[in-house]
Amino acid sequence: MALTLWGSTEVSALIGGPFTTAEVHARLRREIDTMNAHKVQYWPVFFLQDNELAGCAGLRPYRTGEDVFELGVHLRPSYWGQGIALEAALAVVAYAFEHMAAKSLFAGHHP
């Protein structure tokens, strides 16, 4: 799944890519390490109408020790413009405040 998403030149162009297969594997390893260390990650997002991977959405520590997280959403191009990013982001925001005791969230974008 990671290669399907982060291996896409269209997706990765928006997050600092393109990425080689080795870089995608390293990125996945960092996500797993973040989950183990901070109990947050980017979770897969599936489009329920076709059960296909649409992308991922989640949290990563932004200011550790201050309960500030960065929110992110990465979607495959065929799922752009359908409101999925908003729906996923709202679910992540709810999770952050209800389960992670976040004090604030940060979201940015790659130029």
Automatic annotation (TrEMBL):
User: What's an example of a GO molecular-function annotation for this chain?
Assistant: acyltransferase activity, transferring groups other than amino-acyl groups
Give the highest taxon in the source lineage: Bacteria
Q: Does the keyword Transferase apply?
A: yes
InterPro entries, A to Z: Acyl_CoA_acyltransferase, GNAT_dom, N-acetyltransferase
Key words, A-Z? Transferase
Q: Where is the N-acetyltransferase domain?
A: 5-111
Q: Does the keyword Transferase apply?
A: yes
One matching Pfam family:
Acetyltransf_3
Entry protein name: RimJ/RimL family protein N-acetyltransferase
